[in-house]
Amino acid sequence: MAKYFPELTSYLDSMKFEKSCADFESQVSFSDPIYEILQKRIDELEKNNKQLLSENKALKKRLSERFINQEDRIHSIIEIAKKEQSNLYEDVINLIKNQEQFDLD
User: Where in the chain are the domains?
Assistant: First the structure.
């Protein structure tokens, strides 16, 4: 029929392509348990991703609001200094306990 109507050739080719796609779709089975497991895993990962993005946004907001005034900045500096002091103290104690390493015997 396309021989007699050349303008129908493109439609015929399109129909052949659609038929081959439909045949392929009918061969693919989506009831496969592996597919369901993977789909559940994808859903879990997407849920976790949304949760992490939400937490990240909240943390960014807290960080941007953290040093609004001088009192907050001073308080943070004091916290950092206390942690540094604690770490230095622990280092000194560890060096005293491990002084055998430095003996020249």
Answer: 32-66, 68-97
